[in-house]
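ok trying again, last paste got cut off:
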Amino acid sequence: MKHKPLISVIIPVYNGERYLSEAIESVLAQTYRTIEVIVIDDGSTDRSADVARRYAPLIRCSSQEHSGLSAALNHGISLSHGNFLSFLDADDLWAKDKLQLQMAVLDSNQEIDAVFGHVEQFYSPDLEEADRRRIRYNSKITPGYNSGTILIRRKAFLWVGLFDTRWRVGEFVDWYARAVKKRLKSAMLEKVLLKRRLHISNMGIRERSSQKDYLHILKANIERQREKRGS
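nice, full thing came through this time. structure:
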């Protein structure tokens, strides 16, 4: 049998005990089996780390002081061994054939660096009606250029660089802008690979005070483009 390359799946979590099990199980249910799963507990004050460690030895869990999503992702990458990298938020879910479909693309075309997929949002079943009305909901299935859909060659990811720890939100927006600038070659699968859970503790809601990071990311990207034209 042909050797299947190892995929490292990194799940950062901060106070996500309520949904973490479902996220982990959606990874362990993947039809592509050659994976390592690394959960990074970003200084949670709830039982997130305990939930993750219940899945040992199928997964590894490492804890750090609360340092933000970018730092947690980078920590996970530093502990990983796979030649391919993928990421999942602790409250979202993967389609069971996500990795298999993406690996088939990368295996058949060595010029492709990364593969994305489509995203479908859903209200968490525990969300009360009043809270549902508070959360903006797009029922359309959309292309997902985000960390939860990507499968990327490790060397390609490191060529672009690690996530920038300056940003509390928008870390993947910043990373993808750098990837586009470097002309990273990617493909988009016309299938839902990620189901994004909507609930009152979503990162975008929890980190409202950091929304200005998106403007700083945009400014930094414009400055990089100007430096490139001036060089």
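cool. The chain is about 35% helix and 25% strand. Strands lie at 7-13, 35-42, 59-64, 84-87, 93-94, 114-123, 142-144, 151-153, 186-198.
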